[in-house]
Amino acid sequence: MSIASFIDAPGPRARRRQRILTVVVVVALALVLVGGYRRLDARGQFDARRWEVFEQWSVWRFYLYGLGNTLKAAAVSAVGALVLGLGFALGRTAPNRAVRAVAVLYVETFRAAPLILLMFFARFALPKVGITFVDSFWAVVIGLVAYNSAVLAEIFRAGIEALPRGQFEAARSIGLRHGQMMAHVIVPQAVRAMVPALVAQLVVLLKDTSFGALLNYEELLRKGQITGEFAKNPLQALFVAAALYAPVIFVLNRLARRLERRPAARPVNLPAEGGAVLA
Amino acid sequence: MRVSPLRLLRAIGAVYVELFFSLPLLVWALLFFFGLPKVGIVFDRFPSAVIVLAVFTAALCAEAIRAGINTVPPGQGEAARAIGLRFDQVLTLVVLPQALRTMVGPLGSVFLALIRNSAVVALALSVDDLMWRSDQLNTDTARPVQVLLGTFVAYLVLTVPGTLAVNWAQRRWAFGR
To answer: Which residues of chain B neighbour A45 with C-beta distances below 8 Å?
Structure first.
């Protein structure tokens, strides 16, 4: 429901009241912002010496290297999580009861656990049981894949279950086996319908690579922390890291929202609120 | 705020949500932790963690609630206005009660995410919580498999009943439209 249906077009009195309220809010907001600025300034947070490290290209290269590691971990995890997620969604909708049970157990377990715990488990526990190649990069990837494959599996499943029954019946009636039906009829439609939700979750995945900082994986946030420790300007160093995160995430968020509005991403006969079910 | 009649309030609501959606939770946690003392607001570790989680989760809640309000057909708001209800009455008597039912699921997931997020914020700010303790225990005992599996189970005990409750509530209040 849009705002237009809540209120009548304002008359002269309401318009005056709105104008007064707007001014009040603007003044209050300005006071808070100016107050915050003056306090930061009083503590020397805008002093040149706290910012001058960022005049060096090598510091920026240090950050960009971190951004590269962030994107690398996100890309590898995204591929792994999409593949595994689709697998478990198919498992959860499989005709075999045992397969279904395994998929349900996996999805519900890994969806319920904190991501940082999964990363810690990969980093510290897996090497103890003989999986020794796990360094901090792989710990981040394994944690992200374990958690996000469970979340994505639910998104895929919602896409599959939102398809009209007729699609399943038609596929069976032309003689397709379960596997053929899924591969040629159901999954292509389900994935198309779920693209916005999938992209939104992948943005979350990208943001969550920052948890790797706690495992000393040298991604963007960690680079910010290190810079802050060396240059004794933790706030400014974090701010720069944030300024590098923001455009990447902002663009991806925009993309997700655009996909949501694009009707072509949706088969004609699918309910429009298909994505909202799991948001 | 995002459905407010005041355009400015709508804008502030949108900026708030966009702001917290555009940066990772952990970045916010550290910005708050290092930044707030610099504007003269000094908190202990525990209250800092609580504030970060609250402020961040508020943005998630706002989106869930707005999505819920969006599922109410426009005719409902128009009908409410037609019988002479004011803006606040339209919202509280007609729109929100209907929107609430579709919000249960998304809001439930937001609160379950809050439990999971508390782990990472606590660890980053060294708050003495379940995750931080298990990290300490892991360092002290060097038995990561047992310690972390135990913590894993503990978190499942916290979140799985929540998941079940949300599923139940969603079925309980489901309705066709």
So the answer is: 38
From CA A194, how far away is CA A191, in angstroms rounded? 5
| DSSP codes joined into one string, A59-71 | HHHHHHHHHHHHH
Q: What is the ipTM of this complex?
A: 0.76
Check residue A176 and give left, alpha or beta (phi > 0: left; psi -120 to 50: alpha).
beta
Helix (H, G, I), strand (E, B) or coil at A95: coil
Q: What digits encode the pLDDT tens for the residues A59-116?
A: 788 878 888 888 888 889 889 989 998 888 888 888 888 888 888 888 888 888 888 8
Closest CA to A121 of B150, B6, B140: B150
0.80 exceeded by the pTM?
no
CA distance B18 to B5: 20
Cβ atoms of residues B162 and B111 within 8 Å: yes
Measured on CA atoms in the order A195, A200, A206, A211, is the torsion positive or negative? negative
> CA-to-CA distance for B133 and B87, rounded, in angstroms?
49
The closest alpha carbon to A164, from A180, A195, A186, belongs to A186
* Residue numbers of chain A with a pLDDT score lower than 70: 1-11, 48, 262-279
Chain A, chain B: beta-carbon pairs less than 8 Å apart: 175
Average pLDDT over residues B152-158: 81
Long-range contact pairs involving B77-85 (C-beta distance under 8 Å, separation at least 24): B77/A1, B77/A5, B77/A6, B78/A5, B81/A5, B81/A6, B81/A7, B81/A8
What's the residue count for chain B?
177
Mark residue A262 as left, alpha or beta (left: phi above 0; alpha: psi -120 to 50; beta: remaining). beta
Does residue A103 sit in helix, strand or coil?
A: helix
- Residues in chain B within 8 Å Cβ distance of A120: 135, 138, 144, 148
Find the length of chain A.
279
